Amino acid sequence: MMRASAAAGLAFVMLLSGCSRVRSFGARLTGPPTLDEDAFARKRIATHRLSNPPDATVVGKVGSYRIRTGETFFDVARYYDLGYNELVEANPGMDPLLPPVGASVVLPTAWILPCCTYEGIVVNVPEMRLYVYRHPPGETRQLLVETYPIGIGRTGWRTPRGKFHIRRKTVNPKWVIPESIRQEHIKEYGDDRHSIAGGDPDNPLGKYRMELSLAPFSIHGTDVPWGIGMQVTHGCVRLYPEDIERLFPLVPVGTPVEFTYQPVKVGRRDGAVYVEVHRDVYRYGGPSYRRALAALTRQGLGEGVDGDLVKEALRSSAGMPFRVSPAGAPGHAAGVPGRTS
User: Fold this and answer.
1) In the annotation, is 236 catalytic?
2) By C-alpha distance, which of 263, 268, 261 is closest to 57?
3) Does 271 share its domain with 294?
4) Which of 110, 118, 156, 303 could cross-link 60 (Cys pair, CB 3.0–4.6 Å)?
5) For residue 243, what pLDDT is reported?
6) Which range of residues forms the domain containing residue 67?
């Protein structure tokens, strides 16, 4: 079982190196009998169908989950395909390693699509989340979008910004350790290896790697899943093992990739406008009222927005879409039970 590993995960992960349909509105999501590796392998990933270009840019619904004996935020986040950061931000004040049994936690399973690319892979770095877009066979006017939590580069090893493409894909990749990282390993862990073989349980690339046109960066799996939703890599993007296994065959060589940096996202659904706020992890320029208004104006969503609700979103978004248009009950995240949609 993964209980002990999850409880120790936060401390252990800091040692890491190297690089459908939506559930019913406001539903309480019921977990499997046991949150273990088998359950993680069978977890459900929602595929959202949109028009192309999308006329609605908010996907998913916020849900809730009741903690059971022995469960941690690591377990719950992984089963509901969330990053550790997302679950912590949505449930401030709750102990992530020892949450009270019976406590109801918010599952922030609603997202605004990053602006304004809707093809290939889009990574929003401060959100620590990847979006992948594709067309149903023969339907160029429709988009399918899936989204996955990620781990990103830690301090001093920032995940880059820019537009790239997938240049090569590898199953069970060998990791040739860059000399700068090798020296770091020697100093910190006494590990002087020059490479780690593909398939080795210590290989931080996991089973699948998609190399970017900007070497040496790549999108890959991981040997320690508890780092998803954290700044733990040397700049690469890593996914849960089951997520990269699902994503890998969907992305052919040559697929465009954009790494964007949007701590404030804005979007619309069902006539309402939403704002979603994330931490400025690399201190490029954090969320602000001015930036939120600029994003709303850029996407043609500024008319009819309540400025006080925008300010409240900046204070209270908790990483979830927050309604800022005044119709109906004010504010709050999309799809929270008892709140506005």
Assistant:
1) yes
2) 268
3) yes
4) 110
5) 98
6) 3-112
